[in-house]
Specification:
The chain is of the alpha/beta class and 105 residues long. 52% of the residues lie in helices and 12% in strands. A three-stranded parallel β-sheet has the order 2-1-3. The longest helix is centred in the N-terminal third of the chain and has 25 residues. It is globular. The relative contact order is 0.17.
């Protein structure tokens, strides 16, 4: 069997098995509430946007979304808190990209 044909068949096999692994991973997520980090104080326009988005995500996933406000530093404190969170998919950051791009965490 030529190297090209072997490579082509290997890619087809992997492409066919890829959706199976993704589907099995999606079934169990989320198992618990998700924390949404908001780098601004509650009560402002960012809080209203956060609550609207959290409600839509909650409807889609069927699990509660908890808004955790971490104001200060123009959003840098909240971004740093989210960056240092356990990378398990249960902590997400809701805010502009500026604190993420500029801050050092």
């Amino acid at each position: 069997m030529s190297t090209f044909l072997f490579s082509f068949l290997s890619i087809l096999l992997l492409a066919g098995l890829g959706p199976l692994s993704v589907q099995s991973a999606e079934i169990s997520y989320p198992e618990r509430p998700i924390n949404m980090i908001v780098p601004y104080p509650p009560g402002g326009s960012s809080d209203l946007g956060t609550r609207f988005v959290a409600d839509k995500i909650q409807e889609f996933l069927g699990k509660p979304i908890i808004s955790v406000h971490k104001p200060g530093g123009g959003g840098s404190l909240g971004a740093a808190f989210a960056a240092k969170a356990k990378p398990d998919g249960y902590t997400i950051l809701f805010g502009p990209t500026t604190p993420v791009v500029i801050s050092r965490s």
